[in-house]
Specification:
By secondary structure, this protein is of the alpha+beta class. Helix content is 31%, strand content 46%.
Length: 181
């Protein structure tokens, strides 16, 4: 093998190796952006000081080889198409690679800002949650921002709608991705 052929082989091997690594990183970053999620819990605390608090628990399944670092989220929280709160939070939370992680979303609703009509609607909805839980729909719609392997992702859209029966039903980590491709 002459020197030119050897150099071409070495350069070709290096390019092929770097291309393979690049493709691996690209495909995993893309896969990390296709994580699955579901609302897995809803806790309501008693009314105190003119407001009540909800804690939404979301399960997030990361199907890639890379962890995802969440840096912020902004969500509108709807109950049966009634906007009850907007949540905007900066945080640092890691969604582990090839695993399911939990994201707790605290929601504080000030009753005085709802107005009488909305408060009556929400009161009716609260009763609906216990009498017809399949008709009590919680929707979390908004964006998350974060980072995957140094690649910043801003305003990744999230939109989850589930009824109270679905939220409180026992499920496995495999159930999280049943509605995702």
């Amino acid at each position: 093998m002459n020197k030119t052929a050897r150099n071409i082989l070495i350069v070709g091997s290096i390019v092929f190796f770097l291309g393979g690594i690049g493709f691996y990183v690209y495909s995993n970053v893309k896969m990390a952006m296709k994580f699955c999620y579901k609302i897995s819990g809803l806790k309501i605390t008693p009314v105190t000081s003119g407001k009540f608090n909800l804690l939404l628990e979301a399960k997030i399944k990361n199907r890639s080889d890379f962890s995802v670092k969440l840096k912020s989220y902004k969500f509108n929280i709807w109950i049966n198409e009634i906007l009850v709160a907007t949540v905007n939070q900066n945080l640092t939370q890691t969604i582990q690679n090839l695993a399911v992680s939990t994201l707790n979303i605290p929601v504080s609703i000030e009753i005085s800002k709802l107005g009488a009509v909305k408060f009556n609607q929400i009161h009716t909805l609260a009763l609906l949650m216990f009498t017809q839980p399949d008709k009590f729909i919680v929707r979390t719609e908004g964006v998350v921002s974060g980072e995957v392997q140094g690649v910043t992702v801003k305003d990744f859209p999230i939109d989850i709608s589930m009824n109270y029966n679905e939220i409180t039903a026992p499920s496995t980590d495999d159930d999280i991705c049943k509605n995702f491709k």
